[in-house]
Amino acid sequence: MYDIRLENITKKFGDFTAVNNINFTIPKSSVTVLLGPSGCGKTTLMRMIAGLENPTEGKIFFGEHDVTNVPTRRRNIGMVFQYPVIYRNTSVRKNLELPLLSEKLSKQELDKRVDEVAEILGLTDVLKKLVEELDNGTRQKIAVGREVARQPRIILFDEPITNIDLTSKLELKRSLKELFGRLQQTIIYVTHDQTEAMTLADQIALMQDGVISQSDSPKEIYENPASQFAGWFLGNPGMNFVPPQFISVSGSKITSKMFSQTIDLGSKASSADTFGVRAEGISVSPTEIKGGVKARVTRKSIGAGGQYLLDLAVDNLLVKARVSHSIGRSVSENVWTTIESENITFFDKSGKAI
Amino acid sequence: MAQLALDVKGLTKSYGSKVVLENLSFTADMNDFSVICGKPGNGKSVLVRTIMGLEPVDAGSIIVRGKDVAQVSAGERNIGYVPQSFALYPHYTVKENIEYPLDLSKASEAEKKEAVERVSELLRIKDLLGKKPEQLSGGQKQRVAIARGLAKATDVYVLDDPLVGLDFKLRERLIDDLRKTQEELKVSFVYLTSDPLEALSLARTVMILAQGKIVQQDSLDVVYDLPNSIASMNSLGFPEANILPGDLSGTTFTSVLGSIKVKMDSNSSKVVAGIRPEGFQVGSGSGSVDGKITLLENLGSEFAVYFNVKNTNLVTVVSRTDNDALAKVKNKSTTITFKPEAIVLFDAESGKRVGQGVSHV
Q1: CB B173 within 8 A of CB B94
Q2: Of B206, B299, B314, B344, which to mutate for an interface test with A (greatest number of A Cβ within 10 Å)?
Q3: Which helix (H) or strand (E) holds A309?
Q4: Stated pTM of the model
Q5: Taking CB atoms and an 8 Å limit, are A38 and B138 in contact across chains?
Q6: Chain B nearest CA to A72, separation (Å)
Q7: Most buried by CB count within 10 Å: which residue of A143, B19, B40, B218?
Q8: Would the CB atoms of A322 and B301 count as touching at under 8 Å?
Q9: Does the model's ipTM exceed the 0.90 cut?
Q10: Taking chain B (361 residues) in consecutive chunks of 10 residues, what is each chunk's mean pLDDT?
């Protein structure tokens, strides 16, 4: 297996720069998710790796081989798209076998490859069925299986779950996770869905305006966003941002109307402009507590796992706090909030974390 | 008592022998955000079309501000409407798109000007007014479509799943926009969706739509904590509530989770149980069971932990900061416990709530 190295990759469409001078290495035998909003350049980047687009500038290496000018069919990659590419009035087994026929395998080896892939993807029981009889989640699994069975060194996934109905989505996610855990191949997966990205990725490459703005493990990128953009994009809701008028800097020390402690940022303090805190990083008490900041509850709603999301107003600043079901149920007008220093990320004027 | 915005009574609609809406009733207050929530295939689209007057009803009344409009034509019902698909006219500017429904109802120039100003301010699209739809992003188009629906100056609006198919971050913004809009206009929003997280995020009042009927209507808190039926528990909650088959014998309920003592409020011979994901806790304790972990879904602030107990798929949630619990679910199998009170029993026939767990056996 080999890693994929992108050297000064730029792609322009007329005046529009879709991908802007990316230097990045996708490590071998791992799952890298290209995540970002529509128009960030993630699909264009993947298409260049596949050879479906030529970079305007820069080079692409698979291991030591420069593949920049190598056509798609000779790059030894598998591709799975939004809509499954499969033969409808053919059995599942036949669908999985067809791409392997050119390899002239023995019957035994052919069956082994097909059975193995079917087992991982949970297709064993439907191997004899016609594709027509199956739901679109299962069809997408077959499309995945066709690519995996060929054993290419790199497999690219372009939003494979996006168009799958809600009920099949979970099952497909489960199969992909299982598959990725067992494969040795280098996997690149494109999506705009943060849950999918955080669930499937070994590392997330977060993209914005044609560049990779941060690449890290899901845990790291969620807990330590390198920019306001990362803080906002990951999380539902995204991070709260507290503007400069709520912050005072004096030497190396920072105080704020939003918390009672003093935070020492050393020499970095002078560049602190805003700070971010996640909804679950704000602690809420229904009764007055020492060091608590009084806030008005303007709205309540419920989120995942029955937790409440509170919209809180401190002066004219609105923030969202995630609290347990019982606290959320009991609070009404006023609450008192505290924020632990470890839950605070400071950003400079340009939005970079410091 | 303040006048109701909408009072729907005994609405019935069939296509041939297929009953789609069956004696459906609900009310919506002025200055409330009401969400009608139900899984696909329960009559949502037909309900919208009958309220809007795009489809005649077989029986029942649709009382808008005290007046029954069930037999009144669509144009005269005076209900604002944001449809599910946002077909904007490609050759019109954003401003012209917003004005179009007002032109149809022969609004004056002054009225149109006022409406465009009001809705473009609310939905933050002022600087887009001169643009054509093709120059807009998906989220901008959706905001324009919502603005067009709200341009009609009225006090009752029906919104038919307007955020369906949009990506996460856009929905997050538009959810805030919609709530703010309703609060500022102080009008009645009746919003229909099949997405439980959207319903939980938007609603002050919830109506659960199941098999052509509204089976429960109450404040969000009450419907969530005290679902009166299996449809209610199952439609409102994220991740979706767990449904467990099992057997009732006297006051003992037995399922793959083992046996618990239950308190029955009504008699029932055949029951199913429901338990919300947060009803489970990772770790051992009384009544704990062994589960095989099938998927850890990373939601950011927490993980949805999917697990399997004796071939039954179940789900619980673990906070990302709960390191103890997270360490336990990283393995292939784990021990899971639950509070017996978290288990609610429903009659298998009628779906109605009949009892609740009390203690482990």
Answers
A1: no
A2: B299
A3: strand A308-314
A4: 0.93
A5: yes
A6: 30
A7: A143
A8: yes
A9: yes
A10: 89 96 97 96 95 96 95 91 86 94 87 91 89 87 89 92 83 90 93 95 97 97 97 96 96 97 95 98 93 95 96 96 93 94 97 97 89
